[in-house]
Design brief:
Elements: E1 9-15, H1 22-30, E2 37-43, H2 50-55, E3 62-66, H3 72-83, E4 88-91, E5 97-98, H4 102-112, E6 118-127, E7 133-134, H5 140-146, E8 159-161, H6 162-167, H7 180-188, E9 194-206, H8 211-214, H9 216-232, H10 240-251, H11 261-278, H12 283-303, H13 309-314, H14 323-341
Parallel strand pairs: 1-2, 1-4, 2-3, 6-9
Antiparallel strand pairs: 4-8, 5-9, 6-7, 6-8
Helix pairs in contact: 10-11, 11-12, 12-14
């Protein structure tokens, strides 16, 4: 149970017109195996039955705060960080579901690893898209490298060390709407180690009202800005085409377009050489990540019926791919060539 005014953890959940799913979110937190927390719910001007639903739960851990005026998400989150009383602040969204052991696992990890400033988990989707598992790198170095490309921590899974964020004056920045978490983790990764638990501990709901659906264009514009800023720290000033390639690589090919391997290779090689010159990211982890992107791009080009093996092998990126995966790619390309010559595979795969 909550101990006086200083619970070990604060679960922070903003809500605005969330009546459709908030009951499930609340019950998933109240049903946690870990008990020493306050459940700070901040209502940001709901006009539906959200408050009525929340009021139905008679649990002393629930602490409902109502904004006097509509602050919207980023300012509400920062208000929550200021109001939180726990040593740790665990995020929760009003349309998601936390698995019962989530808080217990994350708090135990943070207690055992005092240098870590924030810890996320893997997640599985529910709703419109059901059953997709979102996996993230576990260690701090892998997370730092991945943050050059996209958010390496799922925001609604995160558990933050409150004093570490306060000490470094780290809050969500209103200048980065709809990707404020990505930008914050990028800055935080330079202040202290971040981590992820390699376990699915949250069910993430996909639906028409989600931020990524409603504000897709704005979110992409903010991500592009973050990419520019992060790449500038590698001494790079990317063109619009290079930014598109960078996003295409990180998102696994938005809009279903298959980029020529030469274009992808030129950009990834530029990243490789820039990091060799500036040593901003740990080379083993960074090169392993570039190798994964390079291998995936080669497979996509082969699937589209494009020659790829010679360009793949001839690139310095090939050394970033372990020999087993290089051998598999060669074998895959050879089989496709035999099938094509026998007429069993068309030019597009």
């Amino acid at each position: 149970m909550v101990t006086g005014t200083s619970p070990l953890a604060t679960v922070l959940m903003p809500i605005h017109d969330g009546e459709a799913f908030v009951a499930g979110a609340i019950e998933s937190i109240l049903g946690q195996t870990f008990r020493d927390f306050e459940f700070l719910i901040i209502d940001d001007g709901s006009t539906d039955k959200s408050i009525e639903i929340i009021a139905n739960y008679d649990d002393p851990r629930i602490r409902l705060v109502r904004n006097e005026e509509r602050l919207r998400l980023i300012r509400t989150l920062n208000r929550g960080l200021e109001l939180a009383r726990g040593k740790y602040v665990a995020r929760m969204d009003a349309d998601d579901v936390s698995l019962p052991e989530r808080l217990e696992r994350q708090v135990a990890f943070m207690e055992a690893n005092p240098a870590v400033g924030a810890c996320g988990t893997w997640a599985v989707t529910i709703g419109d898209v059901d059953g997709a598992v979102w996996r993230y790198p576990e260690g701090a170095e892998g997370i730092r490298c991945r943050l050059l490309f996209d958010s390496a921590i799922s925001h609604p899974t995160v558990c933050m060390r409150r004093d570490a964020f306060a000490r470094h004056r780290l809050q969500f920045d209103e200048a980065y709407p709809h990707a404020e978490d990505y930008e914050l983790w990028s800055r935080a990764s330079e202040a202290f180690p971040l981590a992820n638990l390699a376990s699915v501990l949250l069910r993430y709901r996909t639906h028409a009202g989600s931020v990524s659906r409603q504000h897709h264009d704005g979110q992409e514009a903010t991500v592009k800005r973050i990419h520019r800023e992060r790449l500038s720290r590698l001494g790079l000033t990317p063109t619009e085409e290079e930014l598109f390639i960078h996003r295409w690589v990180s998102a696994g090919g938005p809009a279903g377009e298959i980029l020529p391997l030469s274009d992808t290779g030129s950009w990834l090689e530029k990243l490789l050489h820039a990091n060799e010159a500036h040593e901003r990211y740990p080379r083993p982890d960074f090169e392993q990540l570039l190798g994964r992107f390079w291998l995936a791009a080669a497979y996509r080009n082969l699937a589209a019926g494009r020659p790829a093996l010679t360009r793949f092998i001839g690139s310095p990126l090939a050394r970033c791919v372990d020999w087993k995966n290089r051998a598999r790619l060669v074998g895959h390309a050879a089989k496709r060539a035999v099938r094509r010559r026998s007429g069993r595979v068309g030019p597009q795969g």
